[in-house]
Protein 1
Amino acid sequence: MPRYHKLSLAVIFACAAPAAFSSEHSEKVLAALQAGKAHVAQELLIQYKAGAGANAKQRALGKIAATPAEVLVAAHQRRDKRGDLELVRLPQGKSLQQAIAALSADEAVAFVEPNWIYNHAATSNDTYYTNGGLWGMYGDGSSPANQYGSQAAEQWAGGNTACGDVWVGIIDEGYMYNHEDLAANAGKNPGEVAGDGIDNDGNGYVDDVYGWDFAGNDNSVFDGAGDDHGTHVAGTIGGVGGNGKGVAGVCWSVKLFNAKFLGSRGGTTANAVKAVDYMTDMKTRHNLNMIATSNSWGGGGFSQALQDAIGRADNAGMLFIAAAGNDAYNCDSGSNCYPAEYPNNNLIAVASITSTGAMSSFSSYGKTTVDICAPGSAVMSTVPKSSKGKVISGYASYSGTSMATPHVSGAAALYKALNPAASHTQVKNGILAQALPTASCNGKVSSNGRLDVSGY
Ligand SMILES: [Ca+2]
Ligand SMILES: [Ca+2]
Ligand SMILES: [Ca+2]
Ligand SMILES: [Ca+2]
């Protein structure tokens, strides 16, 4: 059970020996623990070195009396020739700090880190159907108009509403794939036969038709009205347009696919790594035109394991689009804006602006660590709603860098659809190069501007 360990850590740190943590990785982990970043109690992720066999692993774990819980990335499945990435558990009362120190010094271990806990990057408000709720899709030349919107409506006016066979992976909560404004865009695993109890495509997950639920470890990615955050994200990327109801996403047609790892208590590094790898495998195994994953979450501290997983997505030609966070941090100053601030080339970190072009008061930013601004305040989108004991299609206005991020994920899909030969790197560079200079974003994000999809 995830627990927040701020108090006990403060005590542990008072007597930790700094000399034991010489590597840059250990220092980052240490600093994040010291800052009280949430993590799962008595759990660690261990990256073993190549060739570390059963005996070497057993000897290492013996030092801290730990027991193996799960192999997250198996050595024999890796192309990078590194060892197992493994989740382990420590006995009650064992100091996480001392365990990290002992394992970091072990010759079989490349790195060791806590199992961080991530949370949604959203702050919901309860204003439904507010005026100009879909402003994030408007352009200066659309009707209604808003120059601070993503200008998606101008592409639509030019006939570019469809994102064709492009897929976007939603790494978040579950999303309501049978929502009236999403169902037509719900991607299905092309290698899986539903409900036969067999893992038809051999990816390790049985009957994963709409994706996989890593929080519940089952194939029901949508589990009810609690999956509102993931459903809201989905509607901004690919709400069905032109059907006379609800909202429209940046792409009116696109293939949405889901790796659920955020539950009611947030998500963990262990499940985030599995979720990212699941999408990477899905793209390569089935040769899907999956341009990006959309990641509206953050928290915890630096994780080499998660950064490595983002790197594997990069190698597979996929962008990782991430929310900058809702703490109003300057992410350039060591504020732990993870995963947004990882330096991976395939990552786009997104800050939030309001409908009047100001940076949203909650939005984190960073001239070197954050890349672009996008609409994130008072954004209308799809949500599940409870009504008379049933879950029905609904709509709501939310605010957060969580809402800004899927505007960019949708933009990546649109760019890829309009420029089919573009590599994922070219898609990223195109999105950033066409950002519109914006006063509130100047010096706050690397592009100095806001999302503008009209020139793709
Ligand atoms: Ca499967
Ligand atoms: Ca099956
Ligand atoms: Ca489930
Ligand atoms: Ca609609």
Protein 2
Amino acid sequence: MGQIDFKDKVIWITGASSGLGEAMAHEFADCGAKVILSGRKEKELVRVQSQVANSSILILDLLQSETFENKVNDAISLYGHVDIIVHNGGVGQNALAIDTKKEVQHTIFDVNFFSTTELTQYLLPHFKKRKTGNIVLISGVLGKVALPGRSSYSASKAALHGYYDSLRAELIEDNIDVTILIPSFLKTDLTKKSLSYNGDRSNKEAETAGCPVDKAAKQVANAVFKKKYQAFIGNNDKGRLLLLISRLFPSLAISMVLKQVKNN
Ligand SMILES: NC(=O)c1ccc[n+]([C@@H]2O[C@H](COP(=O)([O-])OP(=O)(O)OC[C@H]3O[C@@H](n4cnc5c(N)ncnc54)[C@H](OP(=O)(O)O)[C@@H]3O)[C@@H](O)[C@H]2O)c1
């Protein structure tokens, strides 16, 4: 993959307490970055920080938007500046659209979409002043490919593409990059922690064996280093194929997904 170097870069990761966020913290630090670990579980963040060189903790609940302005200022103060924000924190869904309560739909959008736009708005003046910065979004194949029981989750990921493709065009002359990453299925507890129709944890097991997060984190670091507009993350597997098929033959993609769901 070539030499990936983030020396002296300050990278702020949301949802760094587990899964892909934790793996990215290790990977970015291994590539020389100073890492700001955000999440709402202090104990988990302390555990991650104890294993990641050059890292600091910034407690952040993505549902508490009233704290975001101060949190952005706190993040900048930790190392004097922020170079890259990775909007990784996210929550899944495991409930049919017809059943999912309005409050749950809003929670999913608040965590997966609005937290990213609001934090970005507070951070942008800092990026513009420094004439550098990269805004990284962790989207997902389900933002592009339909799967039953994921309506609000899929919509929240799809919304990232519309918003941030537009923002990228606004920022081209400011030397500020936008990188949208599309993971396929990852080996994490996202499905277990996903919300059921009333907001309780679904505790469902994932249907598909996913890509190990350390492998995914290496792919993320490569795409961020190369300032790619968009990149697929994961095993070279069905996810990538489905993405292609859904673009070219949407009805075939839906029948493939439904067949897989029936077989599980
Ligand atoms: N797993 C997959 O197959 C897959 C595929 C495509 C995309 N993704 C995306 O990858 C990202 C990381 O997910 P993951 O798979 O690594 O699952 P994960 O281990 O559950 O990570 C999600 C992270 O987001 C945090 N988070 C959730 N709600 C939050 C809130 N209100 N405030 C602050 N932090 C919050 C979680 O912290 P808590 O422990 O406190 O909830 C956790 O650190 C997500 O954006 C997800 O949508 C995952």
